Known about the structure:
- The structure is a single chain.
- The protein is of the alpha/beta class.
- It has two domains: 2-157, no CATH class; 166-289, 3-Layer(aba) Sandwich (Endonuclease, Chain A).
- It is 42% helix and 18% strand.
- The protein has nine helices and ten strands.
- The strands form four sheets. The chain has a four-stranded mixed β-sheet. A two-stranded parallel ribbon has the order 1-4. A two-stranded parallel sheet has the order 2-3.
- Strand 7 (206-210), helix 8 and strand 8 (237-241) form a beta-alpha-beta unit.
- The longest helix is centred in the C-terminal third of the chain and has 27 residues, at 249-275.
- The model is unreliable at 282-291 (pLDDT under 50).
Amino acid sequence: MSSFMLRDQTRRAATQYRALCETAAAMDITPVFSHTSALAYWGVAAPDDCTLPSDVQHISFPSGAKRRRFDNVASHVWSGEFATTDLVNGFVVAEPPMAWAQIAAHCSEESLAVTAGALMSRDPQRRTATLDELVSYVERNTGFIGRSRCTATIPLLAQNTDSPPESVVYVLVLRNGLGKPEPNHRVDVGPDRYYLIDIAYPDIRLGIEYQGAYHADTDRMRADCTRWNALRRLGWEIVLVTADDLRTEAAKRLIVEDIRFKMERQSALMGLARSYNVSPIHTFGRYDPVN
């Protein structure tokens, strides 16, 4: 999946780069591309609920006095710090922390968290920002519109997720009081062999896996089955989440209740195992002693 996401991000960034070159060439200034235009430059899609117009490029100015207007371009006044790239082909671009802060007033906290997750991808080739960089930008800049939403969103942020849907699930469990799970938790299943669980509660061995279209491939399905069986032999319970589970509020409530039920059951099993001084890890027909 990582390679698929990398290709998608690279394609989006390349398309946007060409569009920005064309837009800048028609201007008599050095524009600072910002907001969703900057996100696209970094390969990240605008949130679905973003209220900014999507059919134009966005640029920013430090004051109303310096603001210029151009055809097919949305001009903004930005009161925060201008953290931008070096000049390239006649324009500069807002760095990810600045662009992330700029969309805060135009989308929900959940969407803001998912966008941050895309910027902070586990894949180093796709990662364009870190949690510290996002937090630092918000802390340094106190007057921009949307700052309160950024501040409220920061506790929902998770580094090292693999995809936007994983970030949606992560925010969903946090929002519903299900604790703070660990993204992409590593589980060793043999010598030099391990699996990563999308979202995990290691203390009760509960994992949550998002099943996108990528997993419909026949070879991928076989690999998934091998993976899940290996994890279950080690006492893990896996909750599978699909796009349908996130499509409506009613569907979200159902999957949250499923996760909550599995959490309670896993906690009870772990407690029962400890009371008998055995491990819930069942491996090759035997129970291993609790460490």
